[in-house]
Amino acid sequence: MKLIDAVRPPSLRRAWLFVPGNDISRHAIAMKSGADAIVADLEEMTAPEDRVQARQRIVAMLRETAALGLIGAVRINKLEHDGHADLQGIMAGAPRAVFLPHSESATQMIALDAALSALETAHGISPGSTEIVPTIESAKGLVALAGILSATSRIRCCMLAVEDLAANLGAKRTPGATELLYARSRFLIECIAAECVAIDLPCTYRSEDVLTADLDLSTQLGFTSKCVVFAEHVPAVNNALTPSPEAISEAVERVAAYAIQDMGMMNGKHWIDAPERNNAARLIARHKALAAYG
Question: Which CATH architecture has domain 11-240?
Answer without folding.
Answer: Alpha-Beta Barrel (3.20)
